[in-house]
């Protein structure tokens, strides 16, 4: 038997919200969407768990992604500083060997 086409996330959200609001039962929602009741139950559980996780994170601190981005910014800032210093050293070295350039300040 062929597998039914995947249900888009927006449709899953609409279905879960209608179940949570009491507009339809899980069985009725499953029948309308042509999926199993277990699928609707799984969507509902995943939806509620993700919401719980979002609320638990709240304002307690930066997310893992934010921490990763902040670390990346720090690394890039350090690399930029090092590259700037290296360019200054090379410029000074070149001036010592070739004399001051017309563009040097």
UniProtKB/TrEMBL annotation:
Domain of life, source organism: Bacteria
Domain Insertion element IS150 protein InsJ-like helix-turn-helix: 11-62
Coiled coil segments of this chain: none
Protein name, as recorded: Insertion element IS150 protein InsJ-like helix-turn-helix domain-containing protein
Organism: Isoptericola hypogeus
């Amino acid at each position: 038997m062929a597998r039914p086409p995947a249900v888009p996330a927006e449709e899953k959200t609409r279905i879960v919200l209608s179940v949570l609001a009491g507009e339809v039962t899980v069985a009725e929602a499953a029948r309308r969407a042509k999926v199993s009741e277990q699928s609707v139950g799984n969507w509902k559980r995943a939806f509620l768990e993700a919401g719980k996780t979002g609320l638990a994170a709240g304002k307690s601190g930066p997310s893992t992604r934010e921490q990763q981005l902040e670390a990346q910014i720090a690394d890039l800032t350090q690399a930029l500083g090092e590259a700037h210093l290296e360019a200054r050293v090379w410029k000074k070295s070149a001036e010592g060997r070739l004399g001051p350039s017309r563009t040097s300040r």
